[in-house]
Amino acid sequence: MDRRTFLASSAAAAAGLSCRSLAGDFPAAVDSFAPRPPAFAVIPVVGDGKWIWTEPPKDQRGYLEPRLFELSIGIELQGTGNAAPLMASTPVPLELPEQKVEDVRIRTEGCAAEIRRLAPEAGQLFLAADGIVRGQRIIAEAIYTLSLCKQYHGFEKEQFPATQKAPHKELRLYLGDSPGIQTRDKPVKDLAAKLGGQLAHSWDKAQAFHKWVWENITARIGPYTNVLTALKDRVGDCEERAAVFVALCRASGIPARLVWLPNHNWAEFYLVDEAGEGHWIPAHTSCYSWFGWTGAHELVLQKGDNIRIPELGKSQRLLEDWMRRSGAKPEARYFADLKPLPPTDDAKNQGTTTADAGPGERSKSASGEWLNMGKYAKEKFVRR
């Protein structure tokens, strides 16, 4: 847990109950889940060249063009009767190379709450309370200031040895099956061999898988199926398309994982360069078609696709909003509001940007969909 997250969770615990100790004492109870988060961005986006790149920069490398965003994300429970005890959670972002947490604080009412790291790059806001009665409101809210970046590192095939060393222990999770991502079944292994079997270099294999997904999995919005169904029916939205890419990479010995954003997924695959340094390389298999770089400011909610929830005793591909309680089921609202912030005076004085906060405003609805908001909501270069 990074320093900012630790301070936020410690402050919340000091103000009320200890989430971890309370969770450990919970008896068997009833689970309820909010609607599964949709991931359906399938229409290719034509960038405007400013807010969203149409091509990578020619003279810059790294995590570029940081933009400040404010995020409020949380859980509100309204009592309908007596329930005791109860817990609930919602996915929240963690700090990543392309996503810097400038500040985060937790506001609570009638409960304790903390930000829990469930995996290296997946976390949740976790709420725990002794109980709730009819008419009582319980709320936990994480309020962030984040810097989101585009990324371009100039990755090229020549940077990476054709023969990659066996992945270290921490990467083995990204070589096997995940919920809904089959990697060892015959259709996956056969297709991976057909597309990449004659290619000696892992970069070439990943490019071949990326191209095949774009050309052979027809974009169609719908609830997630799984990799085998997507290969059989040759349809899927961004989650199936990214999952097929991930499965083909894993079947070929290339570590790969899903990246989850509001209403969208893409993938990353892992290669080690000539100097022995490992890199997670983005591969966009729907909406954006970039390979090796990312030209938009996107909030990352989770990386990885096999996240174990301690209280539920099972793994999830994408973290869901859920609640556990004994007694009457409270009304639950899982909310989030993301807003771009105007640039600082220092940035404006340096002439690097304007006072326009830009696109990216979103609000999470009761269905789990993050709706486009603000003056750019209907622009054709903004992802739906």
Give your account of this protein's structure.
The chain folds into two domains: 3-38 and 67-148 and 308-372, Immunoglobulin-like; 155-291, C8orf32 fold. The strands form five sheets. Strands 2, 4, 7, 13, 18, 19 and 20 form a seven-stranded antiparallel beta sheet that branches. A five-stranded antiparallel beta sheet has the order 1-17-3-6-5. A four-stranded antiparallel beta sheet has the order 12-11-10-14, with helices on one face. A hairpin with a 5-residue loop joins strand 11 (264-272) and strand 12 (278-283). The two termini are 32 Å apart. The chain has seven helices and 20 strands. The chain is an alpha+beta fold and 384 residues long. It is globular and about 65 Å long.
